[in-house]
């Protein structure tokens, strides 16, 4: 079941995407297995085979954040959790069906705005060493220029190339508004409510990375998910209230302690 959900969101735009719209984490490295335990693989069924299509972030025991453009109402989906290598059976991993998918009702594929979706899992998952919920940033927090963040995913290794077997990670420093809004970057398309990252022309996200997290380490050492990767980044911090309080997204009472929240 796919539904639309109304909320107000901002987008964060990544300059490097201008040169790699069809673009694993390009130029990235193999991640340490299970070092990003909130990362999920969104998979669809085709010809009796499950195929990776997008990333996502586990934010509670039964909800995943991903990108709206990853969702089609003609496909059947499942979520793979606790994975590192998509080609092998791994201890600590599991696959869960999908109950409901909520797509932002103002998702605009032409302008790439409101590119966010929330997936309710068919059943809550048990957290473990390989499966954890993400930390969320403080509401409306803004990261400074060059703040180190990492993109993660199993996307294509190069344009039109194969997807990665093992989870990839790549450094994507934050780019401030003054730089990102320059005419040779995103110009008028970027606003102060958006956040940009990357742009070195070497490391970027790619097809198959969409929907996954932009991971940034807080001063207290906790890793926070500041973005949802489409071909541009969807900013999380303005929406932490919705993520935590939305009636539709609220997990069962017994699971609320594991709900994604600001980490202290």
Description:
- The protein contains two helices and 16 strands.
- It is globular, with a radius of gyration of 17 Å.
- With 264 residues, it is mostly beta strands.
- The longest helix is centred in the C-terminal third of the chain and has 6 residues, at 240-245.
- The N and C termini lie far apart (35 Å).
Q: Indicate the CATH class.
A: Mainly Beta
Please give the radius of gyration in angstroms: 17 Å
Strand order of the largest sheet: 2-16-15-14-10-11-3
- Give the termini distance in whole angstroms: 35 Å
Uncertain parts: 3-24, 249-260
What would you call the shape? Answer: globular
Structural class by helix and strand composition:
mainly beta
What are the secondary-structure elements, in order, as H or E?
A: EEEEEEEEEEEEHEEEEH
Helix run count:
2
The percent range for helix content is under 10%
Topology, number of strands = 16
Keywords:
264 residues; mainly beta; Thrombin, subunit H; six-stranded antiparallel beta barrel; 4% helix
Topology:
Blueprint: E1 2-5, E2 11-12, E3 29-30, E4 39-46, E5 49-60, E6 63-66, E7 77-81, E8 94-104, E9 117-121, E10 149-153, E11 168-171, E12 174-175, H1 177-180, E13 196-197, E14 213-217, E15 223-228, E16 233-235, H2 240-245
């Amino acid at each position: 079941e796919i539904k639309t959900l109304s909320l107000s969101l901002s987008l964060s735009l990544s300059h490097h995407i201008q040169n790699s719209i069809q673009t694993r984490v390009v130029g990235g490295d193999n991640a340490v297995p299970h070092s990003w335990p909130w990362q999920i693989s969104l998979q669809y069924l085709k010809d009796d085979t499950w195929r990776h299509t997008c990333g996502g972030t586990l934010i509670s025991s039964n909800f995943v954040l991903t990108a709206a453009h990853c969702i089609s109402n003609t496909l059947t989906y499942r979520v793979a959790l606790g994975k590192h290598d998509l080609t092998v059976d791994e201890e600590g991993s599991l696959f869960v069906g999908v109950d409901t998918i909520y797509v932002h009702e103002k998702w605009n594929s032409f302008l790439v705005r409101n590119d966010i979706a929330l997936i309710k899992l068919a059943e809550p998952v048990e957290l473990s060493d390989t499966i954890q919920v993400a930390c969320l940033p403080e509401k409306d927090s803004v990261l400074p220029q060059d703040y180190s963040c990492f993109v993660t995913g199993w996307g294509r290794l190069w344009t039109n190339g194969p997807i990665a077997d093992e989870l990839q990670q790549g450094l994507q420093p934050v780019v401030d508004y003054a730089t990102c809004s320059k005419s040779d970057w995103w110009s008028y398309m970027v606003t102060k409510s958006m956040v940009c990252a990357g742009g070195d022309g070497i490391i970027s996200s790619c097809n198959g990375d969409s929907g996954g997290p932009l991971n940034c380490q807080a001063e207290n050492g906790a890793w926070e998910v500041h973005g949802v990767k489409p071909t541009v980044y969807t900013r999380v911090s303005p929406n932490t209230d919705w993520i935590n309080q939305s009636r539709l997204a609220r997990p069962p009472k017994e699971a609320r302690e594991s709900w994604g929240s600001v980490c202290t």
